[in-house]
């Protein structure tokens, strides 16, 4: 299985409009971060986790030629704002794009993209079409992938992590419950959010992410959903445990 980091930035991305900080003006490509998303490719399946405002460019940059499904962690704009740009995949397949999302996220998707959910004879020509499948905590099978959703608390919202065998993708959480931690036991390769160095009300920070990775005793951990408050990649990585590093856009991980 191959995992590609399509975006490793927080909701505003890096650089941030108007920001004059050293990170936003860094010349290091690893400090240029689109909104958080990953691509997962197996022998049979190609799926994307989240489709934020940068989705179109992310698909072009990674040269994605087919997409079987999109998994949605939660309903915030930086995770669903690019769903309309799935249209080329929809048109190529001649069928709706399968989107896995919680009931809460589905409500927001239907509101944001109401034109995609009208009767077919009333739908505007060229509009997208989605087949929404509810994430309810049970395992999901997409071709040769068995995906276990793990419920997270994201301040007042519900978000989902996704585990596939010994790999897990965990983003947008304010705390990790004991139940969620137990469901992550045995994971060897972990992508987990680390917003920055300071404590935050709706996201875990670097210290908390490192602690979770160490408690899980993973072989390798990558930190994502990074804000400019984290600092430059070249400065932060040397301070991390040897088996951990900041993720960056374009990183390819073989699991």
Molecular structure report:
- With 255 residues, this protein is of the alpha/beta class.
- The protein has one domain: Metallo-beta-lactamase, Chain A (4-Layer Sandwich), CATH 3.60.15.10.
- The chain is 20% helix and 27% strand.
- The chain has seven helices and 14 strands.
- It has a seven-stranded mixed sheet with strand order 6-5-4-3-2-1-14. A seven-stranded mixed sheet has the order 7-8-9-10-11-12-13.
- The longest helix is centred in the C-terminal third of the chain and has 11 residues, at 206-216.
- It is globular, with a radius of gyration of 18 Å.
- The protein starts with a strand and ends with a strand.
- Helical fraction equals 10-25%
CATH fold assignment: Metallo-beta-lactamase, Chain A
Q: What quaternary form is this?
A: single chain
Corresponding CATH superfamily = Ribonuclease Z/Hydroxyacylglutathione hydrolase-like
Biggest pleated sheet: 7 strands, mixed
Query: Secondary-structure element order, as H and E?
Result: EEEHEHHEHEEEEEHEHEHEE
Proportion of residues in extended strands: 25-35%
Structure summary, number of beta strands: 14
Report the average pLDDT across residues: 97
CATH class: Alpha Beta
